[in-house]
């Protein structure tokens, strides 16, 4: 099967960002914050909804691409990115199936049909599940800071991811994610800023 075009691949990056946008529940902020604790907290998330704004810097463009909308997550594995500006687009993932709605058209496909992206999708599943062991099969993880202010860096280690992603960094203030940065192998960059969770 033919590999996905770059625009579809970016949807997978957005999917990762959707999952990363889940805010963490309240917890004590004085103790040292370690990766197993972060994974445990993520595994407890049931549903979340947050507004986002995103800026993407592409080497081929002189101006960044700016978008905004809403991110939704429902356990055990439903994620949705609803972009409202500059145009409406809906991207969802559930039970191994991806659906993209844009310009009045819808496309659907199974992740198993794109084995080159399998490691990325498994990283998404593992993040939702708080599955550190599975996550480490695809990334080298580095966590800095405390619960009050922390940063998790994810460095791809599998060939499929290394060829596409150089670094993912998630920054949190207290118990919420506030920013997600992705540096692609092409040097394209994405920064997503996340508002407080809507309960």
Condensed summary:
The chain is of the alpha+beta class and 199 residues long. It is 23% helix and 45% strand. The protein has helices at residues 6-20, 35-43, 118-129, 132-136, 159-162; strands at 47-57, 65-74, 78-85, 89-94, 97-102, 105-110, 139-146, 149-156, 165-173, 176-184, 189-197.
List its traits.
199 residues; outer membrane lipoprotein receptor (LolB), chain A; alpha+beta; 23% helix; 5 helices; eleven-stranded antiparallel sheet
CATH fold naming: outer membrane lipoprotein receptor (LolB), chain A
Helix-strand category: alpha+beta
- Second CATH tier, the architecture: Clam
Shape: globular
End-to-end Cα distance, whole Å, is 41 Å
Please tally the β strands and state the result. 11
Mean pLDDT: 79
Low-confidence stretches: none
Percentage of β-strand residues: over 45%
H/E element order: HHEEEEEEHHEEHEEE
